[in-house]
UniProtKB/TrEMBL annotation:
Keywords: Calcium, Glycosidase, Hydrolase, Repeat, Signal. Residues 218-324 form the Calx-beta domain. Belongs to the glycosyl hydrolase 3 family. Its EC number is 3.2.1.21. One of its GO terms (molecular function) is cellulase activity. This is beta-glucosidase.
Length: 1021
């Protein structure tokens, strides 16, 4: 634990008192010794380190929202322990918040290896006084290795503010532990090297306003030699067949890769475990020695031999190899040899899955069943040994939870390391690892990033949607991950929702038509393709109604729409929100994730019910009525939002039909609570057995028992040219041409082009949220081509192209301007309108449009996850394109700009005139948008002549073909072109409503009705 020393007045007084005390006592309370080096200052808070952000050195605040950031100031105080000033601050934190001191990122990291620990003065607020240990807890962390303070590895400890007045907190480096709930770059090597340090951070208490004062952060003492040298084994688990030998490699690691200064000895002995030394293995013991001067990486091998005991069927047995280390830091845990389970019926791949599940289920203990129902975030593991210790069924990587380096190869290696841990359980049940690959394997740098779902909705191309699913599955499975939390089958009814771009559109018929993505991911509906090395288990989310939450109904933090309440009639619920899930079940979807939101069905007198607690919907509708056979996985910590205490949350959600809980951090409490609830009879054993059976069924179908580790045969395909070609096609087909006065588009390669706007050359912005990190980020966050890159490839003369982001370059002498504007990345409720976001274009974007379009013919592209209010700028543009979030392949956007491919996209959402119109959707009684649902001009072919005469002929032909046949699509396209040509830019309520209704009817298969609606729009124009 950190040690503290009280200070009542000044450092001088404290030192004087210590000197006087030394005259009467043989030693003082100070931890300093005569040969300790002088302290090394880190922060004196005299202003020598400013308030600043990376890459410069500085102190800065952070928090879950802007209101969670503490306030800081350098304050003159007469009682300052050192110097004249201290750091003072106030805070009122609801989620999380604190402050950091980062060293400059453009300078080398600092070397702290010579010191024993870090210490600082803290002004205690415990005026009660309360007993020691009962005050507020403050977390303190240091930043080790990596590229900078914000891309380092975090090591943490805490101290309790249980004093009054100044006291000095001393924390030996040996007290810091690897932070398991969050790592900025997913962790590095889990070794506290201390030779490349980037600073420190404090996380302040939540729940009530507070204030603090701090002074004189410094390094103190002489380093513990054992911190410079550590002993490691090449693995923690060594599975072997009965009768084979395990070879444990023991190696040294030194700080800075320096040779050892002292000898290191490692005594080893086989001790404990579940294997019997009399018949299962040959006991072994001994010592290996690394002499002084041994190089970092030096290794020796210990062999443990197992024997055949002639028992035909056995569960796995463990043989721990206890290591006693002298002269170095020992391994964090004891390595284990595991004699593999063998001869058990569930291991027989020739048996039907149902029989394998029944056999394995019959063998599991209550604790093992609880473990199978638990999903933890990988960074939340207190120790990787907890995978076996708690028998965890699943791990996940949340958005941005990535290995270092963030490469496909590192992902496969990381997932395999977790799977190896599961081999130390009795029945060696493999993990099912999950990830949010919502538009490609989007957490992985260099992967193929597809357009977000809203762009795929604009393509109206089920075959293409299936290809994007297949590419995503291929890349995800190649990295050892068999489970994808996608697709989102939400029907977005209000574009103020921050998750709008995760939806295929506002029409359930459109969403259902693109569920071919499920076959792309999973293969055949019977699940027989799931064991292939290019398929993954898909997840239909979020059940049900997450796209219908009302503005202002959310109670989550500062969210306005996300996780709010969906209030609908039962008829609307069935037609709009449930229909896509019914189709997904028919397609064999393997898992379903409920929504954070609440459902309020008008007329049932129950009021809003959290979806994670809605047994009528999950058990009654999804499982019983729809016949869903997969398993239900909760969303991130979502059961905690159910009213009641934690045991109530657990039993309510499990009894409602949830099979696995994404805990994701407190897996210890969850597994214990679940077992307690079953033991008390509040959750039936049959409900547990049903949940575990559903989970095991999918694990068997995925082939994980036979092949738990990554099949890396397809690793070279991650981000490959073939995969990017699919994404490029999707980007091209997702572009929606809303206006094209004077046929400005397509451009000609010979034209002199002026390119401007915030999103013309920003890969991160065009990819959007859920790209590399949860919220995404601007700039070159991954590999790909920007829209500007694509345009440059299509211009005949490179000197005939000028790019000026803010349109500050001269605008004379150009044939055409291309202004690319829109949103910056966001995800979930962080992106809700009213939560720091708006649908209006920024002032800079508007200014760029105004300047370029006043000087030349111009095409404006809006790169966004939802419609933007174009307002006054619309009249100034010659061409307008809804470019959505096209992903990493900006070449695809250039393909339609230059006519290599035709514009064929159609609006998946109604484009409003103003925010006051929202929500506005196809089918509304009053419907007068800027552009209607389904609108989209095409450059595919010339508009057929003949006007209404031709429409009548098309209506007659519609009687004899199906809407989704090639002939039916030709009829619909011709009719749309005739109508859109007549309407041009003169959209009115009389034309927009039948036009939007026609597109809905086409998606439902009613070609004849659609042509009738288009004819009505033509007549109203």
């Amino acid at each position: 634990m950190p040690r503290t020393r009280t200070r009542s007045r000044s450092r001088t007084a404290a030192l004087t008192a210590a000197a006087l005390l030394a005259a009467f006592l043989p030693f003082t309370a100070s931890s300093a010794s005569a040969d300790d080096p002088a302290p090394v200052p880190v922060d004196r808070f005299e202003g020598e380190v400013p308030f600043a952000n990376q890459p410069a050195e500085g102190i800065f605040t952070w928090g879950g929202s802007s209101t969670d950031n503490p306030t800081l100031t350098f304050k003159d105080r007469s009682d300052a322990p050192e110097g004249a000033k201290v750091l003072e601050g106030t805070y009122n934190i609801s989620a999380y918040g604190g402050f950091s001191h980062d060293y400059a990122a453009d300078q080398p990291g600092h070397d702290w290896t010579a010191s024993k620990g870090i210490r600082f003065w803290w002004y205690g607020q415990n005026t009660a006084p309360l007993p020691p240990g009962s005050g507020k807890k403050i977390n303190f962390e240091i930043k080790d290795g990596g590229a900078s303070g914000e891309a380092s590895e975090l090591w943490t400890t805490s101290f309790t503010d249980d004093w009054e007045g100044w006291h000095q907190v001393e924390i030996p480096f040996a007290d810091f532990v690897y932070r398991t709930d969050y790592q900025p770059v997913g962790g590095i090597d889990q070794v506290l090297g201390l030779d490349k340090m980037w600073g420190y951070a404090l996380t302040l208490p939540t729940g009530a306003p507070g204030r603090f004062a701090m002074d004189d952060v410094e390094l103190y003492g002489k380093a513990d030699p054992s911190l410079k040298v550590s002993v490691a084994t090449d693995a923690a688990v060594y599975p072997v067949k009965e009768g084979d030998s395990a070879h444990i490699k023991i190696s040294l690691a030194t700080t800075g890769a320096a040779p050892t200064e002292e000898p290191v000895t490692v005594a080893y002995t086989t001790e404990g475990g579940t294997a019997d030394p009399a018949k299962d293995y040959t006991p072994t013991s001994g010592t290996v020695t690394f002499p002084a001067g041994s190089a970092s990486g030096a290794s020796q091998t210990v062999t443990v031999a197992t024997t055949k005991d002639k028992v035909a069927a056995e569960e796995a047995e463990t043989i721990p190899l206890k290591l006693t280390v002298t002269g170095a830091k020992p391994p964090a845990e004891t390595p284990q040899v595991v004699i593999n389970a063998h001869g058990l019926p569930y291991q027989n791949a020739k048996l039907p899955v149902k029989k394998r599940v029944a056999d394995l289920l019959s063998r599991l203990s209550p604790a093992e069943k609880a473990g199978q129902m638990t999903q933890a975030e990988r960074n939340a593991l207190k120790s990787q040994g907890d995978i076996a210790g708690y028998g965890l069924g699943s791990l996940l990587s949340g958005g941005g939870s990535v290995p270092t380096p963030n490469t496909p190869e590192a992902w496969a290696k990381m997932v395999d390391s977790y799977q190896l841990r599961a081999q130390a359980t009795r029945f060696q049940i493999p993990l099912i690892y999950g990830v949010d690959a919502v538009h490609g394997h989007n957490n992985v740098i260099g992967s193929t990033i597809m357009p977000h779902n809203i762009g795929l909705g604009a393509t109206r191309d089920p075959a293409l949607a299936e290809k994007t699913g297949a590419v995503t599955a291929n890349e995800v499975r190649a990295t050892g991950i068999p489970w994808d939390f996608a697709p989102c089958l939400c029907v977005s009814r209000d574009e103020r929702w921050g998750r709008t771009y995760e939806s295929y559109g506002e029409d359930a018929a459109l969403v259902s038509s693109l569920e071919t993505v499920i076959q792309g991911m999973q293969g055949r509906a019977d699940g027989k393709d799931l064991s292939r090395n290019d398929k993954v288990l898909a997840t239909a989310k979020h059940f049900v109604g997450d796209g219908g939450t009302a503005y202002g109904s959310s109670t989550t933090g500062s969210y306005t729409v996300d996780q709010g309440v969906t209030t609908v009639t039962r008829q609307e619920l069935e037609a709009v929100h449930l229909a896509p899930f019914a189709d997904a079940v028919k397609r064999g979807i393997g898992s379903v994730m409920p929504s954070y939101s609440s459902l309020d069905i008008i007329g049932d007198d129950e009021g809003p019910v959290k979806m994670h607690a809605d047994a009528a919907m999950i058990n009654g509708v999804l499982k019983d009525r729809m016949g869903f056979k997969g398993f239900v996985i909760s969303d991130w910590q979502a059961i905690d939002q159910i009213p009641g205490d934690y045991p109530s949350d657990v039993r309510t959600s499990i009894n409602a039909g949830l099979d696995m809980i994404m805990v994701p951090t407190n897996y210890q409490t969850f597994t214990a609570t679940l077992q307690d609830e079953v033991k008390a009879g509040r959750i039936a054993q049959s409900r547990i057995d049903d949940a575990v059976s559903r989970i095991l069924t999918q694990k068997f179908q995925l082939g994980l028992f036979e092949k738990p580790y990554a099949d890396t045969a397809n690793l070279s395909k991650v981000g490959s040219a073939d995969h990017r070609a699919v994404a490029r096609t999707a980007a091209a087909e997702s572009q929606v041409l809303l206006k094209n006065t004077g046929n400005v588009l397509p451009l000609k390669p010979s034209q002199k082009v002026y390119v401007a706007g915030s999103n013309a050359d920003d890969l991160g912005n065009q990819a959007g949220g859920w790209t590399v990190t949860w919220q995404g980020g601007s700039g070159k966050t991954t590999t790909g081509t920007t829209i500007l890159d694509g345009i440059k490839k299509d211009v005949t003369d490179p000197t005939a192209l000028t790019y000026s982001k803010d349109a500050s370059a001269p605008t004379t002498g150009y044939d055409v301007g291309v202004v690319v504007v829109g949103e910056k990345p966001y995800a979930e409720g962080i992106g809700d309108v009213g939560n720091g976001h708006t649908l209006a274009l920024t002032a800079a974007d508007q200014a760029a449009i105004d300047k370029v379009c006043a000087a030349m013919k111009c095409a404006v592209l809006i790169v966004s996850g939802r419609p933007q209010l174009i307002g006054d700028q619309l009249a100034r543009t010659d061409a307008l394109v809804a470019s959505w979030l096209p992903g990493t392949e900006g070449d695809g956007v250039a393909d339609v700009l230059y006519g290599k491919k035709a514009f064929t996209g159609q609006l998946p959402l109604t484009w409003p005139k103003s925010e006051s119109q929202l929500p506005i959707n196809v089918g509304d009684a009053t419907y007068d948008p800027q552009f209607p649902y389904g609108w989209g001009l095409t450059t595919l072919k010339k508009t057929p002549p003949g006007g209404e005469v031709t429409l009548r002929a098309l209506a007659l032909a519609a009687n004899f073909v199906k809407a989704d046949s090639p002939a039916g699509k030709e009829i619909a396209t011709a009719a749309r072109q005739i109508v859109q040509q007549k309407i041009e830019t003169h959209l009115t309520q009389a034309t927009s409503k039948p036009f939007a209704d026609a597109d809905h009817l086409l998606l439902t298969g009613d070609l004849k009705g659609a042509i009738a609606k288009l004819t009505a729009a033509y007549r109203a124009a």
